[in-house]
Amino acid sequence: MNDILIAPSILSADFARLGEEVAAVDRAGADWIHLDVMDGHFVPNITFGPPIIKALRGSSQKVFDCHLMIAPADPFLQAFADAGCDYITVHQEAGPHLDRSLQAIRGLGKKAGVSLNPSTPETTLEYVLDRLDLILLMSVNPGFGGQAFIPAIIEKTRRVKEMIGDRDIRIEIDGGVSPETAPALAAAGADVLVAGSAVFKGGSEETYRQNIAAIRTAAEGALKAAA
User: Fold this and answer.
1) Average of per-residue pLDDT across 41-50
2) Quick check: is 82 catalytic?
3) Sign of torsion, CA 193 137 68 106?
4) Which of 65, 133, 174, 191 is catalytic?
5) Rounded Cα gap, residues 20 and 4, in angstroms
6) Are 137 and 153 a contacting pair, CB within 8 Å?
7) How far apart are CA 132 and CA 121, in angstroms?
8) Collapsing DSSP states into helix, strand and coil, what is residue 3?
C-alpha cells in the first residue's frame, strides 16, 4: 500500500495571497500542491492557467499536481509542462483521443494522469492503463469547490484498485475529502487525497497544519485498522 499523500487544492486558497498560501500549506505538511485548471467550457467556472502556475512554482518545491478541466487539452499540454507541472491530468471526457493525450504528456517528461467524472465508468480506462501514472476520481461534479461528497465513489475506488492490479498507478480522489470521508477512501485503495476547503478553512498556517494532519491521521488510521 502506498503512503497516503495529502494534496491541498489551491482553489480554496486566498487568491489575493496565492504565492504565500502555497508556501504556507507546503510548510504545513502538504505532500503535493493540487492545481485545478478550469476553462468555463468543459466545466462551469474559470480559474487560472500556465502563467499563474509558473509564477507559483517558486513558492514550493513539492510536486505540482495539475488537474486540467479543460477541453481541448492537447494544445495546452506543452504550456503546462513548461510552467512547472509534475503531474498533468486530463479528463477522459474532454477529448476523443485519450491515448494520444497520455502519450503526449509522457513525451514531455511528465507523469500522466486521467480523471473520471462521477458518472463515467472506470472501464473506459482498461485500454490505457499502461499509459498511466495516476487515476483521479471526481467525488463531486467538477467545476466548483465546497460540494458534498458522492458516496458511490468509495466502491468505484475499490473497483479501480482491483483493475490496476500490480501496476504502479496512484489513485487520487478530488471532492468532498475530509477527516470524515478519508477513512473509507483510504480503505478502498485511494492514496492521494485532494482537499480544498477542508485544508484552507481557518486561514492560517497553523490551522492548515492541523487540518492536513487530521485528514492524514483519519486515512492512515483506516489502513492500520484494515491491516
Assistant:
1) 96
2) no
3) positive
4) 174
5) 25
6) yes
7) 17
8) coil
Distance separating alpha carbons of residues 93 and 97, to the nearest angstrom: 10
Which DSSP category does 201 fall into?
A: T
Torsion sign across C-alpha atoms 10, 50, 31, 27: negative
Distance in angstroms (rounded) separating the CA atoms of residues 34 and 26: 11
pLDDT at 142: 86
Residue 36 is a catalytic residue? yes
- Residue 199 is placed in which grid cell? 485544508
Per the residue annotation, which of 26, 31, 36, 39 is the catalytic one? Answer: 36
Alpha-carbon gap, residue 148 to 58, rounded angstroms: 33
pLDDT at position 2? 67
pLDDT tens, residue by residue, 115-162: 999 999 999 999 999 999 999 999 999 877 677 899 999 999 999 999
The per-residue pLDDT for 26 is 98
